Amino acid sequence: MPTRREIDDFLAQKRIAFVGVSRDPKAFANIVYRALKERGYQLYPVNPHAAQLEGDPCHPSLAQLPEPVGFGHACHRFVKQITGSLPK
Taking Cα atoms as reference points, which of 13, 55, 65 lies closest to residue 78? Predict the structure, then answer.
């Protein structure tokens, strides 16, 4: 389980590579993705099986992101803690 500091460090980033977002708009990862996007985070979805996710261009791997990101996120690791800790 992530610590509060890990969650705060994650939320302090403004550019995040989001590994684990799904092609299914009802998937929990997509709910988190939309919540972060609505709060102004610049997100880079990573999914080798999709060209676009949630209206954003999708990248097949972290190595193919257009610019460096401050943080990478695999959805399964922090997702439950993050949804209750998003800044308004």
Answer: 13
Tell me which residue has tokens 């009802």. 26
30 by Cβ neighbours in 10 Å (0-12 / 13-18 / 19+) ranks as: buried
The upper half-sphere exposure of residue 65, i.e. CA atoms within 13 Å in the direction of its Cβ, equals: 18
Q: What is the pLDDT of residues 13-61, one digit of tens each?
A: 888 888 878 888 898 888 888 999 999 999 999 888 889 988 899 988 8
Instruction: State pLDDT tens for residues 61-74.
Output: 888 888 888 765 55
Strands of the chain, DSSP E: 15-19, 42-46, 52-53, 56-57, 71-74
Q: Residue 69: enclosing H or E segment and its boundaries? A: none
